[in-house]
Amino acid sequence: MEKREGHDNKYGMVIDLDKCTGCGTCMVACAAENNVTVRADESDKERSIAWMQLYKIDNGRPFPDTEVCYFPRPCMHCDEDGRGGHHSPCVSVCVATATELDPHTGIVSQIYARCIGCRYCQAACPYHARYFNWWDGYSSFKPFSKGMERSLSPEVSPRMRGVIEKCTFCHHRLMRAKTKAYAENRRDLREYEYITACTEACPARAITFGDLNNPDHMVSRLIKNKNTFRLLEKLNTQPKVYYISSKEWVRKLADNYLPDQIKPVSGNDI
Amino acid sequence: MENQRDPSGKTPGQGPLLSLINKIKALVKTIFSSSFKIGLVYFAAGLVPALIIGWLFFPALLYSKQTQPMNFNHALHMDPEIVSEIQGDTETERCLYCHSFRNDGTFTGIPEIGVCSECHKDDDFPLGESEEEELLINEYVTNKREIPWLSYSRQPDCVYFSHIAHIELGKLECTTCHGNRGKNQVLPAYEKNRISGYSRNIWGKKISGLKKDTWDSMKMDDCAACHKEKGHEENNACFTCHK
Amino acid sequence: MGSDKKKFTELLSVNRRNFIKFAIGGAVGTGLSPLPWKLIDDTAIFTQNLPWVPVPETGKFTKVRSHCTLCPGACGIEVRKVGDRAVKIEGRTDHPVNPGGLCPLGMGGLQLLYNENIRCKSPLKRVGSRSTGEFEPLSWDEALRALTHQILELRSNGKAGSIVAIDGYNSGSTVSLMIKRFMKAIGSNNYIRLPSMEGETAAVSKLMYGSDTPVAYDLENSDFILSFGCGLLEGWGAPGRLLNTWGLWRSAENRENATIYQVEPRASNTASKADKWIPARPGTETALALGIANVIIRENLYNKTYVENCTAGFFEHEAEGIKQRGFRDIIVENYNPDRVSEITGIGPDMIISTARAFAGAKTPIAICGKGKGTLNGDINEFMAVHALNALTGNINRPGGVLIGARPPLSELPAPEVDEIASESLKKPGLTLGNAVLKEYSSQTSAIAESILKGDGQEVDTLLVFSSNPAFTIPDGGDFYQSLAKIPFIVSFSPYLDETAMMADLILPDHTYLEKIDDMECPSLQYSFYGMTQPAVAPLYDTRNTGDVIIRLAEMIGGTTANSFPFKTLEEAIKSRVQGLFDCKEGSGKYNPSDTPSKFISAGTGVTPDFKDFKGMWKQLKNGGFWYNPLSHIKNNADIFNAPESKFEFMSSRLKSLIEASTAKPASDTLEEPLYMPHFRGSEKSDEGYPLMMIPYEMINLSSGWLPNPPYLNKSLFDSQLKGDDSFVEINPETALAYKLKEGDKIQVTSAKGSASVRVHLFDGAMPGVVFMPMGFGHMAYDDFSFGKGCNPNRLMGANIDPLSGQPAWWYTPVKISKAI
Q1: pTM score, whole prediction
Q2: Which residue of B has its CA nearest to C16?
Q3: Are A51 and A166 contacting, i.e. CB atoms less than 8 angstroms apart?
């Protein structure tokens, strides 16, 4: 079989914060799609697991000039910096090769069966996108979630205690889309054929998902918007999740506002 | 002789070759000495049972045997002269008649009862004379009950495997991984690992883990080796096969 | 021989050396066997697949189309299934209400289906004392017989009127009609719906527009929306529609951008995301609306053609021979920006600029209904807001206020009433003492009033359908207390909610994913009718309430049984649907490029696409829908059934209702007639309660009868709920005055009750106001909900809305003190 050159994808996400209403559907859709576990006390944020986490920020101005903005935060799927320098922070510290950056999709994987639960990656992640399973999630020992294991999806492995989990850009949906394409005798996916559960669920359509390497994809066009930024850009983690906000204070809080960093992120910079 | 030795252990006036011969002689003598023989017996008394336990009893203990709910004669169903519906030039095509792909590309695996009842639909006119068929029709087809088959090749939950990618794109034969299941007349007993819960077919029937045929085992190393061999090392990225 | 014997004895003597040899032999043998290596491997595999971690069974993936009935929004859903199991709920992309998206509650719906701990698994009979949750399962036959016996006995004693039903099903659903019909057939006038903005919207539609169907808003085509506290992003109306529309308004690629002004005392999601946030003092929205009207009138910004031709009561006029001042003069005199500024706390400049922006927009709409709209509204405020709409004349036009139309479903044959029933129906139903608008407002609070005050009518048997009034009524817990005094309570809830826990008998319904059901959605700018189908087979021994009602009627017999000429709910639905087919209008297909609002702006209807009734029924039964964009928008006269077919600034209907009412609400000092929108201010002195408590709703917290699905709990911030404590939002300035810091525990006390909560300092909270989230504080359900936080309903209800007689939940004076 021929080797496909130059067809490597780089999946990424653009979240329009002007459209985001902070409703939290992305979080619920993510949890339902990915068999994320629930605990009786979800308000204990050090123990609660949310691959997609909604943050609330405000402009800090007193009443009545207060403004609120919401930040949906999936895994940023950090990349290499392209200069042979550093790697995704979590991948470079994993001692068990349980997480790796797939050069063919740009997705940072997390293999539960491989993870030894040292939580080094959790400490390394600047976005707090990684979560540790302190207990078994769904199991026969959990009477409080009785019956709820019936809605578990077979496409995602339920996690056992002692492993790290995080957003996978709904990798199983990529597999689902590919399998469908193969059945239709196609090898390449159309735009939007593979989108994450949060993208699909967002009622305000604030999330766009696609291949950053494909100039025709909407994501590639959106990241050229002058209001596009990434979180903690100065760390040079090269996230594949972009945000758009027309509000300066929001962009400022994302740490993209150091004097020499006021510039739109262009496709070349990725 | 003992006295003739000097502290260095060498016999005076003799060459290195002779010294070696002497050493061997001494060793042989020790071996045939009664105390050593006795020691050997003890050694063997430890070794042999251990080998027997490890090679014979352990596998018997490790795997629980379960029989399938009913027999299925693969060979019979794969014969186009007997079952005319099952067409196809290659064996794989004939397998795919029952073990088919759904429209979304997912693999059905063990067929549901609806597939059986496509042919075995009428209890008044059975297609054959076997007791199995009678059981099939009376117990399952009529009651629309699924047969609780035990799957020999089910990978654990952490594994994602796309049949269509291997069959349609990779052009692999079913036999590459599943062996000559299609030629079986009798379903073998299902053996389940009591510790890991896996089917024995994943590790391989051979307890040694040694592999002669490609279908002897279906572990991660087997997948990876095949990917490498066929020039698809990019598919050895963890997320390709894990979920 | 001797030597052999010696050898043999040597062999037998297991000395240390030999033992070591034996052990080494064993070790080598073991090492050469697969045993250790396989064991290590298997043990490693064991730890990767712990046997108690469930392995979800895989199979064929299918999708079942249906509708979400968790709120009145009627969003289309698609339930993704593997084999028999539902694994995900997704929004339907082929649906006019929510093309694609869904709200978080709808998304988390599977946890309301599968969570065993909150479900009623079979009919239950109370064995312990009330609210302890001690029940005993019984068969459906026994349960139905018990209820039949109860009803028959009350009827034979002439007490059929003491049977009260509270109905929380979708107001247009067939099951709701069945309950209403059942109550009539057995002879009770006490069919009560829960309070919601639907009631006030219907009232204002009737009183001002003269329409029997509630008004709807063509928000999608509007370019300016002035929202009086509507939680557009908190779940108002049809949440799926609103959130989707919001994305359209805010998309950079799209020019359909609308300007949104939000009047609200708190920086809610809607207020923060709006173009302008107008934080008027809570309870003064009416004054603000009239202040805006004042500016529009004085600056001559109103639509003169419309006001002159299509409205009544604007100018000076004669009524019954007496000269009557018009709306214009009264508003100009009483609501100048300076006075309104004093009342509302909004600067005169802001009032003037808002009025100019509103009147200057092409298609401005003013909307009302606070929060999600799941509670009653202030009828005066509703009237003031709609007066604004009449001033701009943006009524009955694309992008304006539209007069809704219910789907043309066939009428069911009238219920038969026997002698006992007709005798009993002569007695009026429960009525709130001083309610003028009893026809439109929910009388749920009359139950508590009647029982607790002891001077009203008797309530002997309470039937509760698809609701949890013990938790949701904002009356300071009066209803909950009154439950204890009702001799017999029957719950039809699929869940063990607070009201069910007080019940003597539970006849559990299926959940919305297990049954056939239907709905209307009157808040849309097209008539809509949708059906649900079972996405999964019923998990437990539950029955569709529609079928249960029919069975009950059959068991009661006589005319009651005759009133139900159908065997199943499905049959009844089918006979209603016939009307949809017979009208030869409407479509069951949705194309994302042809949204209903496009049809409205184009002024064309959809092409009817139902060929035969059989096909239509099949499509609807499979979770289908029927919709028809309001096509009559060109004809004003058809719509306005008010005198001379005009919009009434001064409602003649309300006037006659007030005159007919025995308990006349006191007139106020401004010499404004009560039947026109006016601002009264608070009646009671707030002495001892210097602060105000305002409940607020969140889209990711179920505030109604349903528990919050655990997935939604994830999305709550730990400044909203931490452990078992919920937080109130307080402005840092107010907190400073009380020496409070973040996380402090305080006691919030109103005239009705007291609650212990924590403090969250939030700049977006109006100073002097305590904002308490609504939806916490369940005293039923499981570990995910029970005892978490405080229910603000337990503090509210000290004030009564003078026209509807319902609790004025939007205004609760409180005091706070640091908890020790």
Answers
A1: 0.91
A2: B39
A3: yes
For residue C646, is pLDDT > 80?
Answer: yes
pLDDT mean over C442-461: 81
How far out from the chain centre does Cα A76 lie?
A: 5
**Are C102 and C238 in contact, with CB atoms under 8 Å apart?**
no
Own/partner pairs for B74-83, CB < 8 Å, 24+ apart?
A: B74/B181, B74/B182, B74/B183, B74/B184, B74/B185, B74/B187, B75/B182, B75/B183, B75/B184, B75/B185, B76/B185, B78/B182, B78/B183, B83/B119
Distance CA A55, CA A253 (A): 12
Q: How many CA atoms lie within 13 A of A63 on its CB side?
A: 26
C279 touches chain A (CB under 8 A): yes
Q: Any idea which residue has 């999330």 for tokens?
A: A207
Determine the angle formed by the axes of helices C35-48 and C16-32, rounding to 10 degrees.
60
| Distance from C-alpha of C456 to C-alpha of C483, rounded to nearest angstrom | 15
Question: Any residues with CB less than 8 A from the CB of C660 and at least 6 apart, and which?
Answer: none
Give the pLDDT score at C233.
94
Specify the 3-state DSSP secondary structure of C361.
Answer: coil
pLDDT in tens, C281-314: 998 999 999 999 999 999 999 999 999 888 889 9
Statement: residue B78 has pLDDT above 60: yes
Question: Interface pTM (ipTM) of the complex?
Answer: 0.91
Q: Do C196 and C374 meet the contact criterion of CB atoms below 8 Å apart?
A: yes
Cα–Cα distance measured from residue C32 to residue C25, given in angstroms and rounded to the nearest whole number: 10
What's the gap in Å between the CA of C594 and the closest CA on chain B?
29
> Cα dihedral sign for C551, C552, C556, C559?
negative
At A116, the pLDDT band (50, 70, 90 cuts) reads very high
DSSP annotation of B139: I
The token pair that represents C57 in the structure block: 């069974």
CB C170 within 8 A of CB C530: no
The angle formed by the CA atoms of residues C410, C416 and C417, to the nearest 5 degrees, is 140
SS (H, E, C) C139-189: CHHHHHHHHHHHHHHHHHCCCHHHEEEEECCCCCCHHHHHHHHHHHHHCCC
Q: Which amino acid is at B155?
A: Q
**Chain B residues near residue A179 by CB distance under 8 angstroms:** 104-106, 162, 164-165
> Between the CA of residue A20 and those of A95, B21, C61, C245, what are the distances in Å?
37, 90, 31, 12
Tell me how far apart the alpha carbons of residues C165 and C183 are, in angstroms, rounded to a whole number: 8
Chain C neighbours among A 164-183 (CB < 8 Å)? none
How many other C-beta atoms lie within 10 A of the C-beta of residue C20?
Answer: 14
Q: What is the mean pLDDT of chain C?
A: 89
For the domain made up of A11-269, give the CATH fold: Alpha-Beta Plaits (3.30.70)
- Candidates C48, C714, C784: best to mutate against A (most CBs of A within 10 A) is C714
Q: Look up residue A71 and give its two tokens.
A: 């930040």
Backbone torsion region of residue C789, taken as left when φ is above 0, otherwise alpha when ψ lies between -120 and 50, otherwise beta: left
Q: What is the pLDDT of residues A59-99, one digit of tens each?
A: 889 999 999 999 999 999 999 876 666 678 999 999 999 99
Closest to A202 measured CA to CA, from C699, C31, C174, C539 = C699
DSSP assignment, residue B181? G
CA distances from residue C340 to A69, C205, C350, C583 in whole angstroms, order as listed: 31, 26, 11, 49
User: How many A×C Cβ pairs under 8 Å?
Assistant: 237
Q: Where are the domains of chain A?
A: 11-269
Pairing of strands C488-491, C461-465: parallel
What is the distance between the terminal CA atoms of chain C, rounded to a whole angstrom?
Answer: 99
Answer whether C710 sits within 8 Å of A148, measured CB to CB: yes
Residues in chain A: 270
